[in-house]
Amino acid sequence: KAGVTQTPRYLIKTRGQQVTLSCSPISGHRSVSWYQQTPGQGLQFLFEYFSETQRNKGNFPGRFSGRQFSNSRSEMNVSTLELGDSALYLCASSPSTGPATQYFGPGTRLLVL
Amino acid sequence: KNEVEQSPQNLTAQEGEFITINCSYSVGISALHWLQQHPGGGIVSLFMLSSGKKKHGRLIATINIQEKHSSLHITASHPRDSAVYICAVSGAQKLVFGQGTRLTINP
Lengths: 113, 107
Fold this sequence. Notes:
Radius of gyration of chain A: 13 Å
Distance between the termini of chain B: 36 Å
Oligomer: heterodimer
Largest sheet of chain A: 7 strands, mixed
Helix content of chain B: under 10%
Structural class of chain A: mainly beta
């Protein structure tokens, strides 16, 4: 099976812009989670989607949002970008929600100038 | 205090040495994960465990639920084991991560 794919891999934006990142899970996986990784804060949970429904959300402002489509592909959107949003954004998929092995994508590296 | 604490933060060893990385957590969990991240960012899940011990090749993971502690061991370490090892716990349906342990194995 193909692994988790994320597009784009690299992105440069300026403050105030918005950005949309895409994640395609492993075929058959219905749960997609998003994470942010920064040198200062490490890895932090953003949100999880399962069957097109947001199941859980981390402690991030409302500028961070996401959605999941019927084919389990997921997008996350960050509006009104701030310098501190520069990070590696990782998505991970698993067959089900709850405790399960997470299969990570390669990440999207976002730089906000 | 972080919910998940790892030690050491950095570890340098010689090829062939036995490696131990520790993880302590302070919250109730349903499972604990060990992850490996190589330079460039890719993360691989090594283990998910909720009790006892698991082994895969030269890697061994143990967990003590009563003491809220887990260890990751690497036997006969090799330079290709050089990576950041991250402990994460599943609780309240989300993953909470430790800060990672940067492991460098010198030939």
